[in-house]
Amino acid sequence: MLKYVYLFLHQYLCYEICLLEATYWRVEQRLQYHKTETEGLIHLYYLQRLQDQLSTESIEYGVLSVRAYFNHDSLCVEVLNARDVIPLDPNGFSDPFVIIELLPRKVFAHCAEQQTNVQKKTLHPMFDECFEFSVTLEQCRVEGAMILFTVMDHDVLTFNDFAGEAFLALGNIPGVDENNTSIDNFHGLKTVELNLMHQKNKNHAILQTLESRTGDKMAQDFVKKQKQRISA
Ligand SMILES: [Ca+2]
Fold first, then answer.
1. Is residue 6 predicted with pLDDT exceeding 80?
2. Ligand 1 geometric centre to CA of 224 (Å)
3. How much is the pTM?
4. pLDDT tens digit string along 105-140?
5. Which CATH number fits the domain that encloses residue 171?
6. Band of the pLDDT at 25, cuts 50, 70, 90?
7. How many domains does the chain have?
8. Transmembrane segments in this chain: where (predicted)?
9. For residue 70, which of 48, 87, 175, 231 is within the disulfide window of CB 3.0 to 4.6 Å?
10. Which is it for the CA torsion 186, 189, 191, 194, positive or negative?
11. Ligand 1 center–CA 122 separation, angstroms
12. 86 CA to middle of ligand 1, Å?
């Protein structure tokens, strides 16, 4: 009997210690965030999103198909299509288009974001459009360099609605990855399927830290942009 009481107590204490450790870790992390300047925090946020992309198996917001490679002094991105985009219009469809931007913004400040044409009234848009960005190999190899694809639903009278986002690390695309030989067109290149995501964590620690920086325009603009991407 005593043995079981002992075992129970032991397990209970282990459980309590685990909880304490988790709490301590969260507090420690918050402190770190508060010590990090805004640009660094935004970078951290996107690094986490890139991790989310790798671990997201759910296709509830649809799937985006793209291809990308680097050659000489340009990054070529092809947006092929999307399937099962979420319906955002009263007619049960969306008018999807994709915005393509390079991150971190500090590294790719000279590259304006680009976007596809709007495909009207469909949840399975075919884009088949190519985009070129003037960048160097060194820029593509910066830690955390990535492409952000944002799928939006175009609206005529109101603001466009957010349909989903996806991230692609530049470090391992053909032409940037050291194992790849030189490549100069999309022919034979593997299609990358990216599960579209929404931010599910309404209490994201980085967003909350940035939101508390009330006098910081960069922080406020970023939080405002991200809030539209949090799932309802
Ligand atoms: Ca629409």
1. no
2. 21
3. 0.89
4. 999 999 999 999 999 999 999 999 999 999 999 999
5. 2.60.40.150
6. confident
7. 1
8. none
9. 175
10. negative
11. 10
12. 11
Closest CA to 170 of 20, 68, 53: 68
Taking the C-alpha atoms of residue 204 and residue 229, their distance in angstroms, rounded to an integer, is 12
Is 13 part of a structural domain of the chain?
no
Give the Å distance between the CA of 50 and the centre of ligand 1: 28
Q: Which SS3 state, helix, strand or coil, does residue 40 take? A: helix
150 bridge partner residues: 99, 165
- Is 14 a domain residue? no
Residues lining ligand 1 (ion), CB within 5 A? 89, 95, 153, 155
pLDDT-above-90 percentage for the chain: 78
Q: How far, in Å, is the centroid of ligand 1 from the Cα of 182?
A: 41
To which residue do tokens 């951290």 refer?
A: 44
Ligand 1 centre from 123 Cα, in Å? 11
Is 201 contained in some domain? yes
- Which residues span the domain enclosing 65? 38-227
Chain segment 196-213, per-residue pLDDT in tens: 999 999 999 999 999 999
Query: What is the edge-to-edge ordering of all strands in the sheet holding 126-134?
Result: 126-134, 74-83, 63-71, 192-195
What is the tens place of the pLDDT at every residue in 149-204? 999 999 999 999 999 999 999 998 999 987 666 777 787 889 999 999 999 999 99
Q: From ligand 1's centre to the CA of 92, what distance in Å?
A: 10
| 157 is a domain residue | yes
For residue 207 the two structure tokens come to 């967003």
What's the one-letter identity of residue 91?
N
Q: Judge whether 132 and 74 are in contact, CB under 8 Å.
A: yes
Tell me the three state secondary structure of residue 28: helix
